[in-house]
Amino acid sequence: MSVRRFRMLSLITTLVMAATVAACADDGAPEEAAKDQTLTVWHYERPESAMAIAWAEAIRLFKEAHPGVTVRFEQKTFEQIRQNAAMALNADDPPTVVEYNKGNSTAGLLAKQGVLTDFTGESTKRGWDRMLTPSLQTTTRYDTDGIMGSGAVYGIPNYSEFVLVYYNKDMFAKHGVAVPQTLSAFEAAMDVFVKAGITPLSVGGAEYPAQQIFYELVLSKADRAFVDAYQRYMGNVDFTGPAFQFGATTFASWVRKGYIAKDSARVKAEDMNLAFMKQRFPIVIVGSWMYGDFVRGIKDFEWGTFLFPGNRLHPGSSGNLWVVPAKAKDKSLAYDFIDITMKPEIQRLLAESGGVPVHGDASAAPTGKNTDLLAHFATIEAADGLAFYPDWPAAGYYDVLGVAIQDLINGTKKPDEVLADIAKPYHDNVVRLGK
Fold this sequence. Notes:
The chain is α/β, with parallel strands linked by helices. The protein has helices at residues 3-36, 50-65, 78-89, 104-112, 120-126, 128-131, 134-137, 169-174, 183-195, 208-219, 224-232, 242-256, 269-277, 291-297, 331-341, 344-352, 369-382, 397-410, 415-433, and strands spanning 38-43, 70-75, 97-100, 141-142, 152-153, 159-168, 201-202, 283-287, 303-306, 316-318, 321-323, 356-357.
């Protein structure tokens, strides 16, 4: 055999073997890859909430569609993720997809720091951007300074939320109190309960709820230009102006008048909600995220809801975001999971369970109390009334506001002093941003 022929036969044999190996690899690769893939989901919604119910179904559908993938769900608390997100999401082996709070001080900050994945292209490809109204898209995009409303997409919500007033219908009827339509009528209604020896409002001053009451009062004297200036740095913010002055002085007066208990500065959100459910207070002001819990948890009295009286603007936005850590493995699995949470059947389940869906015909599905919730949200959307949340503008502002509102509850500082306390870190951030 000539050297040339030997080399030719060797080459043919090598090519055949390579093709055989490649064919075997092609046949087995998807299964082997799937076995090595893991979807780790973090969220902090209570199991009874509409979001948790819908997302549990989304996880089930994901498992059906990805039989070889390991799925791990890890329940967290709001405070756990709020306090530890920067470190946990920037670890070498972070979760694949995480529920994270939206806004400049949270998602915006991590986006600016490079901790989160920019998945603008994925959002466009899968049509998520077309499922969200412009107001809901505000919290999905962040610029290079971490300010929401423009720039790349760093997160996707699959529900909406807003703050509203829940009331005990039985207690209102017993004391002859009608649902108020104005702020003055709301105060008059609370006066009736105070005269009867009942503190009207269940308030969690140790966490976010008290801040949101303060913000509702601020918003009663505000407009869209105020919100854009405060939240998106699109104008000057005057903490001595009528909106903030009214919010601080009125909140302090509500404590003096007995609408808010003086020991509520130590009360956490969960305890606040439980106290309302146990009929210790006739009213609680909290987000739509509690709606489903109240539907399933309140059995011994009738209750209802109304929007904060007289306000066109309300604390609210898209729901929390699904974000993907920049260092996450198997990012395609995260996108597949997010996509499932946006499907019509998950959106309908969310609505049926007491949540507010972001798109589709889910609003036609619920009956009973849930129709009231969706009607409230429709009213807010029609008025362009989503005003975001008071702690969003700057990193660390949640803690600044928390201390400030506790000072109002405890009476340790006057309203002007409290406003000065919250003005300084805000304006310091304006200087840092060069706005």
